[in-house]
């Protein structure tokens, strides 16, 4: 199984707009290409070629073009915050040539909110076909050859869905936008070959994991390897790479992980 990091940045990306010169790199070296980060998403691919997309960030079009991806077989959402779903219209060209809508899945509350805001995607409009058939995760166990596990994670006052994808004898877990570690999370992610985990910054944050929490989760669930994502402008790639344990990597846009 292969996982591609489509985007590895926080909600404003890196560099962030603003600052003294209109572009704010924070502590990130602007000369390091791996510090240029778009909003988070991943693409999973099985040995048989099935592709699952997780989240539709605002940078989705450029991410798919950069990774030569013109087809997906299903899409999953972690939650409905703008940086994770406002690129949803970029799924429209991926619907072309299909016999039916792209299968889509999310937790019940995320389904409700996505339907409320993007009704045309899920029901069609003015002669345009339905782009995605959106269903609740509750009864889903298999999708396109992947075994699916999921858990609701605290994300400040909201919740985000964590996923475990198993295929070809390997497991990749995805835990972005979390603010606490729960027993259910540890149970789901336990023994993952790869854990891709939220790591906003070094200092604690009310709605996201910080570095110590990210490493704690990876250790608690005994993940064989971990990849830190959702990184803000304080997380310089080279500096952070020198700090983390040997089995932990720092994500960057376009990174390919073979599980």
Please provide a written account of the structure.
The protein is of the alpha/beta class and 259 residues long. The protein contains eight helices and 16 strands. The strands form three sheets. Strands 8-7-6-5-4-1-16 form a seven-stranded mixed β-sheet. The chain has a seven-stranded mixed β-sheet with strand order 9-10-11-12-13-14-15. A two-stranded antiparallel sheet has the order 2-3. Strand 13 (194-198), helix 7 and strand 14 (226-229) form a beta-alpha-beta unit. The radius of gyration is 17 Å and the shape is globular. The model has no long low-confidence stretch (mean pLDDT 96).
Number of DSSP E strands: 16
The mean pLDDT is 96
Main structural class: alpha/beta
- Low-pLDDT stretches are none
Biggest sheet strand order reads: 8-7-6-5-4-1-16
Helix content: 10-25%
Rg (CA only)? 17 Å
Q: What is the end-to-end distance?
A: 5 Å
Outline: globular
Counting DSSP H or I runs of 4 or more residues, the number of helices is: 8
Order of helices and strands: EEEEEHEHHEHHEEEEEHEHEHEE
> Which strand-content bin applies to the residues?
25-35%
Q: Strand count, sense and closure of the main sheet?
A: 7 strands, mixed
């Amino acid at each position: 199984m292969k996982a591609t990091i489509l985007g590895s940045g926080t909600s404003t990306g890196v560099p962030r707009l603003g600052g003294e010169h209109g572009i704010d790199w924070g502590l990130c070296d602007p000369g390091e290409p791996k510090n240029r980060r778009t909003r988070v998403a991943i693409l999973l691919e099985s040995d048989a070629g099935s592709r699952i997309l997780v989240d539709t960030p605002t940078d989705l079009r450029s991410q798919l073009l950069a990774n030569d991806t013109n087809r997906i077989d299903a899409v999953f959402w972690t939650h409905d915050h703008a940086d994770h779903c406002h690129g949803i219209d970029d799924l429209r060209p991926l619907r072309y040539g299909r016999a039916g809508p792209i299968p889509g899945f999310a937790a019940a509350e995320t389904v409700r909110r996505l339907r409320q805001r993007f009704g045309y995607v899920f029901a069609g409009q003015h002669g345009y076909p339905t782009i995605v058939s959106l269903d609740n995760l509750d009864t889903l166990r298999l999708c396109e050859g992947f075994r699916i596990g999921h858990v609701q994670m605290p994300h400040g006052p909201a919740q985000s869905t964590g996923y475990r994808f198993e295929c070809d004898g390997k497991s990749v877990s995805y835990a972005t936008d979390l603010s606490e570690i729960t027993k259910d999370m540890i149970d789901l992610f336990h023994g993952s070959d790869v854990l891709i985990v939220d790591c906003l910054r070094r200092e604690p944050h009310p709605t996201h994991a910080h570095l110590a929490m990210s490493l704690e989760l990876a250790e608690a669930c005994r993940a064989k390897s971990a990849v830190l994502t959702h990184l803000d402008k304080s997380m310089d790639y080279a500096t952070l790479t020198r700090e983390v344990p040997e089995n932990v990597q720092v994500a960057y846009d376009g990174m390919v992980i073979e599980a």
